[in-house]
Fold this protein.
Amino acid sequence: MNILLVYHLRLGDIVRCLPIAKWFHDQGHRVYFECGASYHGLFDLVHYAQPVLPAPRGDFDRVIDLQVWPDKFERYVNENRPWAEFVCDLFPEGKKIDMSRIELDRPPIVVDPYVRDSVVVFPRGYSQLTPVSEHVMLGLAHRVADGRPVLALGKAEHGYHECQDIGALCAVIANARQVVTLNSAPTVIAAAYRDSWIHICECERDDFFHFRQIRVQPKR
C-alpha cells in the first residue's frame, strides 16, 4: 500500500512524525511524506520514507493528515493533551507507535574538530510560549562547558552561527561534545543521535520527553 503522511511545516513536528513513517514502513508499506521543499533535505537521512511536495493525491491508497496547525490547533489547545498523544489519536494505529523512537541515518558530513570539542547551544527557540532569556541559555551552556568552547547556533541575522542545511544541523547535533536545546527541532533530532543532552523546559506544553534527555527548569 502507498501511504501518504502529511505535515507541511515546522521541522520539529515533522521529525516527531518520523516514528509514524517508520512504523508503516516496517509493516511493509511504501511511505511518502508530504511537506514543504525546505524540509526535503531531512529525508536524505530517512531511508524509510520519501518526501513529496503538496500536490493532488490520487496516486496514494491512504492519506493521513497529521497537521495540528492550522485546522486542529484550537482543538489541540482546548484538549490540553501532549502533542504526540493528540497526533496519534488522528489515525487508528497511533496507539501502537512509540513516538520517542526517532530514527535518522548518520549524517555523512565531517564536522570541524572544534565542534567535537564544543558545547552546542540554541539560545533562541522559535516555538516556545514563554520565552527563555538568551542569557540564561548561554550561561547554562558555559557552566556545562566548564572552560571548553561554546558554539551558539541559530539564525545569522541574530548573530549566531547558522547551519547551511538540515543535514549540517544534524551533523553538529550528532557530533558535538554536548548539546543544550530549547526549541523542539534540535531536541528531537538529538534523540536520534545522542546518549544524552540537556533540554531547557520553557513551558508546560514542552512535552517531548525522552529517557536520555536531561531536563532542566530555567531560572528566569
The chain has two domains: 2-96, 113-216. The beta strands are 2-6, 30-34, 50-52, 62-65, 119-121, 150-152, 178-181, 197-200, 213-216. Residues 134-145 form the longest helix (12 residues).
